[in-house]
Design goal:
about 70 residues; 8 strands; rod-shaped
């Protein structure tokens, strides 16, 4: 069996000590396969990726805060 998926996560803004901190949304996808070897044993292999654009603090974008997981 083959599987796959797409995802989007939206973060709500927060305020810490009067400073507004906001994370960008994260996009992700995954795919993989399941193989039934015997009635009692199966193998699974898959890959998942998430991409996040970064942080802003009081409207200023923080360099280097983008990430791929």
């Amino acid at each position: 069996a083959l599987y796959g998926g797409l995802a989007y996560t939206r973060y709500l803004g927060e305020t810490f000590g009067g400073v507004a901190v906001r994370r960008s949304g994260a996009f992700g996808f995954d795919f993989g396969a399941n193989l039934a070897v015997t009635p009692d044993i199966s193998l699974t292999a898959g890959v998942a990726f998430d991409f996040e654009d970064g942080f802003t603090v009081d409207g200023w974008r923080i360099g280097g805060s983008a990430r791929t997981i």
